[in-house]
Amino acid sequence: MKTKKKIVLFGLLGVGVLVLGSPLISSANNNTNVPRGTLDFINTRGGRNKNLLNIRGSDSWKGKRGVDNSGFIIFDTYINGIRASIINLRNQNLLHGIDTIYRLVKKYTAGDSEEIVGNYSKFIGNRLNPPIDDYYNSTLNFRNDEKTIKSVIFSMIIFENALYNISIDQENQIKTLINKAYEIAR
């Protein structure tokens, strides 16, 4: 049995706390074929809100149930939360010209220190295949490169929710959700 740990995480839009345990998918009206199960290893704000990239805003997203007391959107399913994150990532490129990891992270971590932005950018760059050392200047296709989009979203989920030591099975659960969300985000 795992012990519960609290870890403070500085992420895209603020601070999250990791405490193990939380449900996965519970929406009967979601028309996606997602295996039943739990992501009980994610009990951060992102996990509780089914908003694993901790996006904020008042936009009308599919599956939006409201916002928490800190302004983070609450979704009905993880898939709808990840779908919104994929669309948001694409829009950062399309509407704001954001095409590097550093500029993406800087946009989402407004107000965070340069050290946090740099560490977050480096984390994402190191997880891409092939890894990107120059996350300041290397341009990426966030608009329609499926492999890049999925890799960046996965890396951001890991960082945002402090999931650094998860199992291959847990990684695969997250990747399954990303694949499903990507299909409905087209």
Q: Can you characterise this structure?
A:
It is a single chain. This protein has 186 residues and is mainly α. The chain has one domain (16-25, 37-184). It contains six helices and four strands; from the N terminus they run ββαββααααα. The protein has a two-stranded antiparallel sheet with strand order 1-2. It has a two-stranded antiparallel sheet with strand order 3-4. A hairpin with a 2-residue loop joins strand 1 and strand 2. The longest helix has 19 residues, at 78-96. It is globular and about 35 Å long. The protein starts with 7 loop residues before the first strand and ends with a helix. 36% of the residues are buried. Mean pLDDT is 81; it is low at 1-37.
Could you give a short description of this structure?
41% of the residues lie in helices and 8% in strands. It has 186 residues and is mostly helical. It has one domain.
